Amino acid sequence: MSAVRPVLRHDWRREEVLELFALPFPELLYRAASVHREHFDPAQVQVSTLLSVKTGGCPEDCGYCPQAARYHTGVDATKLMSTEAVLEKARQAKAAGASRFCMGAAWRSPKDRDIPKVASMIQEVKARGLETCATLGMLSDPQAQALKAAGLDYYHHTLDTAPEFYGEIIHTREFQDRLDTLSHVRDAGMKTCCGGIVGMGESREQRAGLLQALATLPAHPDSVPINRLVQVEGTPLAGTAELDPFEFVRTIAVARILMPKSMVRLSAGREQMSDELQALCFAAGANSIFYGEKLLTTGNPDTERDMALFARLGLVPMPVQVDAADHDHGGTIHATITSQPEPAIA
Ligand code: SAM
Ligand code: DTB
Ligand code: SF4
Q1: Strands 320-321, 316-317: parallel, antiparallel or unpaired by DSSP?
Q2: Is 181 in the pocket of ligand 3 (CB under 6 A)?
Q3: Which residues line ligand 1 (CB under 6 A)?
Q4: Burial zone of 113 (CB within 10 Å; 0-12 exposed, 13-18 middle, 19+ buried)
Q5: Quick one: which of 152, 218, 242, 267 is 20 to 30 A from 184 by CA?
Q6: Does residue 271 contact residue 232 with C-beta atoms inside 8 Å?
Q7: 3-state helix, strand, coil in the chain (%, to 5)
C-alpha cells in the first residue's frame, strides 16, 4: 500500500454507491473529474472500432438485442467472416485512427471448432499493430486460454445489468454465468472489458447494483463500457421509457469514481445523444468511445461528427498502450507508448 497511490477498493457497498448517485450534480461531476485526473490525461480518449464478425441468429433471449434469432428485427444471420475480410476492416479502422479493434460474434458461446478461425483473425489483426478485443459469448477455461495464446489482449463480456434485475432481461443464462466467463478470462491472463446497459427500465438502485457488481469484481475491468440502450423495433425492450440524460451522466461519473483506473467507455447510444450530452460524459470521466459509423448492427455517429466533436472539445485519441497491462493487478501502471494512431481525429 502506498500513500500516494491508494489501493483500489473492491468492497463498495450499495449504500455508498447510492450516496454517490444522490450527490448534487455539480459535486458528483467535480469528484469524478478529480478522480479522472489522478490517473489519466482528461484530454485523451481511447478509440476502439467494432466489427460484427458473425451477425444474428443468436439462440439467447437478451431483451435488448437485435441479434437474438427469436426477435423479428430485420437483422439477417451471417456466417463467420473470413480472416481476409476482417483484416480489410481492421486496416480501415487503423487508418481512421482506432487503437483497438473489437470483434463481436452473436454466439451464446463459441464452438470449439470456431476457436482456430477466431484465433487466426486475432493473430493477424494484432500483427498489424492494433490492440485486439473479442466478444464471443461465454468461454470455457480452455477456450479462454486458446484465445490468450493467439494474442488476444481484451475479452469483452458485460454483466448486462444488476444481479437482481437480470431475470427480467435474460432468461437463457444467469448472472453467475457471466462471472464464470470473466473468471476464466482473468485466469488466462487477458484483460477484461466489462460494463453493462442502462435505460432498460431498471431503477437507480439497480443501476447502482450494476456498478457495484463491476467494482467488486476480483479485479476492476480494464475497460468499462457503459451502454445506453439502443431501442430496436422487434426486441422486447423497444418502447422502454427513455433514461433521463442527467441520470446517464451520473452513471458515468459514479463508474469513474468506483473504478478510477479503468477506461470508462461511452458506448452504445451515442448516435442518439447530443454533442452537449457527450461532452458532459467526457467531463464526468468517460475516456473511451466506439468510433466508426456502425456498432455491431446499429448506427454510431459518423467519423466526421466525432472528429468535429473532438476538435471542438480539445480531445485527442489516446495512443496505443501496448503495455498498459496491470492497472488493477497488483502492479504499477507502465503504459508504454510505442505507436501513435495515424492522424484522424483531432
Ligand atoms: N454474444 C456475445 C455476448 O452477448 O456476450 C457478444 C456480442 S453482444 C451483441 C455484445 C454486447 O452488446 C452485449 O453484451 C450488450 O452489452 C451490447 N448490446 C447488444 N444490444 C444492445 C443494445 N440494443 N443496446 C445497447 N447495448 C447492446
Ligand atoms: C459493448 O459494451 N457494447 C458494444 C460492444 N461492447 C460489443 C456493442 C453495442 C451493440 C449495440 C447494438 C448493435 O449494434 O447491435
Ligand atoms: Fe446473443 Fe449476445 Fe445478443 Fe445476447 S447480446 S442475444 S448473447 S448476441
Answers
A1: unpaired
A2: no
A3: 64-65, 67, 104, 106-107, 135, 137, 157-158, 197, 227, 229-230, 232, 268, 296
A4: exposed
A5: 267
A6: no
A7: 40, 15, 45
Give pairs for 302-306: CB < 8 Å, separation 24+.
303/96, 303/344, 303/345, 306/345
* Cα dihedral 121, 318, 219, 278 in deg (nearest 10): -100
Q: Which ligand is nearest to the CA of 297?
A: 2
Per-residue pLDDT, 101: 96
State which of 108, 138, 177 you would mutate to test the pocket of ligand 3, scoring each by most atoms of that ligand within 8 A of its C-beta.
108
Query: Is the distance from the beta carbon of residue 139 to the nearest atom of ligand 3 less than 6 Å?
Result: no
Please give the positions annotated as active site. Answer: 58, 62, 65, 102, 133, 193, 265
Query: What does pTM read for this prediction?
Result: 0.92
Considering every ligand atom shown, identify the ligand nearest to the alpha carbon of residue 300 and give its number.
2
The burial of 166, by beta-carbon neighbours within 10 Å (0-12 exposed, 13-18 middle, 19 or more buried), is given as buried
Question: What is the 3-class SS of 235-289, one letter each residue?
Answer: CCCCCCCCCCHHHHHHHHHHHHHHCCCCEEEECCCHHHCCHHHHHHHHHCCCCEE
Collect all residues with Cβ–Cβ distance below 8 Å to 90 and sequence separation of at least 6: 51, 101, 124, 125, 128, 130
Predicted confidence (pLDDT) at residue 334 exceeds the cutoff of 50: no
221 Cα–ligand 2 center, Å: 17
C-alpha cell at 162: 444488476
Residue that is written with C-alpha cell 457527450 in the block: 278
Is residue 328 very low, low, confident or very high in pLDDT (cuts 50, 70, 90)?
A: low
pLDDT in tens, 134-173: 999 999 999 999 999 999 999 999 999 999 999 999 999 9
Q: What is the pLDDT of residues 69-105, one digit of tens each?
A: 999 999 999 999 999 999 999 999 999 888 899 999 9
pLDDT per residue as tens digits for the range 188-214: 999 999 999 999 999 999 999 999 999
Rounded to the nearest whole angstrom, what is the distance from the C-alpha of residue 23 to the centroid of ligand 2?
29
C-alpha 55 to ligand 3 mean position (Å): 10
